Amino acid sequence: MPIEIKELHIKINVDEKTAASTNATSIDEAKIMRAVSESVEQAVHIDKRKKER
Protein backbone atom coordinates (compact mmCIF):
# COMPACT_ATOMS: atom_id res chain seq x y z
CA MET A 1 0.00 0.00 0.00
CA PRO A 2 1.55 3.36 -1.00
CA ILE A 3 2.18 6.07 1.55
CA GLU A 4 1.02 9.60 0.75
CA ILE A 5 2.76 12.56 2.36
CA LYS A 6 0.23 15.37 2.73
CA GLU A 7 2.34 17.80 4.72
CA LEU A 8 6.05 18.33 5.15
CA HIS A 9 7.28 20.37 8.09
CA ILE A 10 10.90 21.52 8.17
CA LYS A 11 12.22 23.05 11.36
CA ILE A 12 15.67 24.63 11.57
CA ASN A 13 17.32 25.95 14.69
CA VAL A 14 20.09 28.44 14.05
CA ASP A 15 22.36 29.53 16.85
CA GLU A 16 23.58 33.07 16.33
CA LYS A 17 27.26 33.68 17.03
CA THR A 18 28.96 36.92 18.03
CA ALA A 19 28.98 39.92 15.71
CA ALA A 20 32.60 39.16 14.71
CA SER A 21 31.52 36.04 12.81
CA THR A 22 28.77 37.63 10.72
CA ASN A 23 30.51 36.65 7.46
CA ALA A 24 30.66 33.00 8.51
CA THR A 25 27.04 33.15 9.61
CA SER A 26 25.89 34.51 6.26
CA ILE A 27 27.79 31.74 4.46
CA ASP A 28 26.22 29.14 6.76
CA GLU A 29 22.78 30.64 6.15
CA ALA A 30 23.35 30.45 2.40
CA LYS A 31 24.29 26.77 2.68
CA ILE A 32 21.24 26.08 4.84
CA MET A 33 18.90 27.86 2.42
CA ARG A 34 20.40 25.98 -0.54
CA ALA A 35 19.92 22.65 1.25
CA VAL A 36 16.32 23.50 2.14
CA SER A 37 15.49 24.61 -1.40
CA GLU A 38 17.03 21.44 -2.87
CA SER A 39 15.01 19.31 -0.44
CA VAL A 40 11.79 21.07 -1.38
CA GLU A 41 12.54 20.69 -5.10
CA GLN A 42 13.14 16.96 -4.63
CA ALA A 43 9.89 16.58 -2.67
CA VAL A 44 7.96 18.38 -5.43
CA HIS A 45 9.62 16.23 -8.09
CA ILE A 46 8.68 13.04 -6.21
CA ASP A 47 5.11 14.27 -5.83
CA LYS A 48 4.86 15.02 -9.58
CA ARG A 49 6.19 11.56 -10.46
CA LYS A 50 3.59 9.94 -8.19
CA LYS A 51 0.78 11.92 -9.80
CA GLU A 52 1.92 10.89 -13.30
CA ARG A 53 1.50 7.22 -12.42
Detail the topology: elements first, then pairings.
Blueprint: H1 22-52
What does this structure look like?
- The protein has 53 residues and is mainly alpha-helical.
- The protein has a domain of 29 residues.
- The longest helix is centred in the last third of the chain and has 31 residues.
Please work out how many helical segments DSSP would assign: 1
Helix content: 55-70%
> Structural class, judged by helices and strands?
mainly alpha
Which percent range describes the beta-strand content? under 5%
Mean pLDDT comes to 78
Major beta-sheet overview:
none
List keywords for this structure.
elongated, 1 helix, 53 residues, mainly alpha, 58% helix, single chain, DUF5908
Task: Give a short synopsis of this structure.
The protein has 53 residues and is an all-alpha fold.
